[in-house]
Amino acid sequence: MAAGANRYDVVVIGAGPGGYVAAIRAAQLGMKVACVEKRSSLGGTCLNVGCIPSKALLDSSELYHLAESRFKIHGIRVDNLGLDLPAMLARKDKVVKELTDGVRFLFKKNKIAAIEGVAKIDAPGKVSVRGGEVGDVSLEAPHIVVATGSVPVELPFLKFDGKTVVSSTEALCFDRVPEHLLVVGGGYIGLELGSVWRRLGAKVTVVEFLPRITPLADVEIGGLLHKSLAKQGLEFQLETKVTGIELRNGGATVKAETNHGGSLSYSCDRVLVAVGRRAFADKLGLEELGGKVDPKTGKVAVDERYRTNVEGIYAIGDVIDGPMLAHKAEDEGIAVAEIIAGKPGRVDYDTIPSVIYTWPEMASVGLTEEQAKSKGLTYKVGKFPFLANGRAKAMDETEGLVKVLADSRTDRLLGVHILGPRASDMIAEAVAVMEFGGSAEDVARTCHSHPTLSEAFKEAALAVDKRAIHM
What we know:
alpha/beta; FAD/NAD(P)-binding domain; Enolase-like, domain 1; 5-stranded parallel β-sheet; 24% strand
C-alpha cells in the first residue's frame, strides 16, 4: 500500500448488513473508511447465505407449489409440470451475486476501501488483516467497529458434516430434493427452509424441544401459523429433544426423547440443525485487550452508544444484545457511524419488526399479548381476518388475520401481529405508527386504498373499539 494509505478514520470489521451500512454512512459523513471482510464477496451472511438466498428459494418454491396446486383455481392449466432444481438454484445464486456486486459498487461510489482477509485487533486503533489476496495488511484508525455477525449453533451430538447433518448454509444448495428432511428447531430458519423443501416434494419433520414453534411470537398468531404449516404437510413433534444420530450411507437415523419420557427414532437423508445462531467475535483479539465477551453466547458488551469498554472500539449487530436481525444491524450501523461523527444516533428497540417468510407470512412489532399481560398492562384487542378482506379474496389468499393490541387508557398501539399474505410488507405501517406514538384511532381514521390487504389493518384497529365495518 502507498505511504499513509493504511490510515483511516474508521475501520469496520465485517461487511454484513451492519458493517457495510456503517461503512457507507461513515463515508457519507466525510470519514475515510476501510471495511474488512473475510469473504471474497461483500454482504455478509445475510446476502450470501442467509436472508437473500433463502427468500429467493422461498419465492421460487412458492411459485412451484402454486403451479402444482392452485393455478387451476385461477383458470390456469399447467400440463407436465416439472422441477428443474439446478435452474432454481442458479437463479438464487444470480440474485445473490447481483446484490453483493451492488454493495461493492456502493463501496466504490463512497470511496470505501474493501479489504479481504481475517481481521485481528492488535491494540486500540490498530488492526491487522491476514489471508487476503493482497497479502497481510496493517490498518490504523481511532475508531474500530466490530460487525462480525453470527454463525449457526452446532449441537455436540449433531456435528455439522456439510452433507447429511447441515446448517442453513448447506440447506440452501442441496443437489437434490431430500426424501426426508428432519429439521431440528422450530424457529424461523427451520420453518422457512422446511417450507422450501416441503413445497418441492420432501417429507419434512420438525422436532422442537419447547411446547410450541416460534416461541417468541404471540401465542395465538404462532398457533395459527403452526396449523397452516401442518395443513401444508409439515409434520411437527413438539416437546422433544434430539439425543443422537447414527450416520449411514446417504442418510441417518436420529434418536429423540419426548419430555414425557417416550423414545422416538427417525430415518432421514438430511438433518437440518436450526436451533439458533451464536455471536461470532472469536479470535478478534478483543478479549485480550480487556473487552467483555460473554463466553456462552459470544456477545460483546457495549453501552448505549455501542462502545465497548476498550477505548475506540465499538460493536453492532448480531455480536451485541438484541434480536439477530439484518434490519436491526443496519439501523445500528447508521447509529454508530453518526455517533462517531458526533451526531445523536439512536435505535428504537421497541419498534423493531420481526418476520417469518413462510406462506402465509408472519410479522409482528411491539408487545405480544402474553408480554402485555406479564407487564400488568390493561389493553384492548382488535382482530380482523383476511377472509373478510376484498383483495385477499381476489388473490385467493384468505388465510390469517391482523391482531392489534392497544392501551386501554391511551389507545396507543402496544403491538401488531399479522399472519397472512404479504405480512412482511404490511408490518411497516404498524412500525411507522408506533414510532410516532400513534393510536388505534389514528390507524382507524387513516384512509386506506381499496381493495388492498392493508385495509385489514385498518379494520383490526376499528375492531379495538368493536366498530369494524366488514365483520
